Amino acid sequence: PLTEHYTSIDPSYGSTSKSNLSTPHNKSTGNTDIVENNISDYDTTDTSNTTNTSNETNETITFTSEVKIVGVSAIPIIMTFMIQYFLAIIPITVLGHIGSLELGAASLAIMTYNITGLGIVQGAVTVLDTFAAQAYGAKKYHHVGEWSQRCFVFICVLLIPMYFVWWFSEPLLNFLQPNKELSILAQRYLRIMSYGTPGLVVFEVTKRFLQSQGIFHPPTYVLTFCAPFSMILTYLLVFTFDFGFIGAPIAESISYLLMGTLLFIYAGFIDGYQCWNGVSKEAMTREIYPMLKLAV
Prior knowledge:
- The protein is mostly helical.
- The chain is built from 11 helices and no strands.
């Protein structure tokens, strides 16, 4: 039905800042209904103070302050990557004292491991730099843990073909180079390294989980301890305990497992656990396609 609104203005106010009652009339029935409408006063708040505060806030953000923030955040990340890549040099350095065959086999195995394994893991875990960081910035803290779980499961699925390549890599390595003995040793190296890969995956996922929350130093602390530990352990296994060639990948696998364990303990009991909302089956299975699309 059509209604006509008659708005009366109280002249005692001296302005039109407030309206009183309106009487809608129903022409089809002739009935008159009284409806009370409360209309708020016009907001005459002075915004000059807000504008001045915003300008003052913007003025405090300078180029120097931005460089300082970036530098403080970047230094521990740089140190983390430097020490982590240093771990790959340790077995090559130690095995070089045994013989050229062992040195070549270790170099071939590490190259194959980095291309078919480590590169894929680090590429897949990089999705957390986008999704987990955005969730933390939006203050959806439990989503940070959910994205980390999803990423871990995703990488575990990717490990299946990686393990197949490592355990049966001899034909591939023979195709790349003619020395069959070199391929056999490199395959043994890769097989042993596969036992420590889960620790590396845990370390990488937990590292991104912490970094998305602005926690940068713990991975550096863990690697600062594990790097000399790996060096000492490699030397002991290769020379002192006479493990020879296979002592190097054993030491490296143990180091990877230790890295993942220590960083996981830090995130679970010291700092970073605030964004962990428990293991969720739903979180592991949904929104896989956006993560897969970005990872690829």
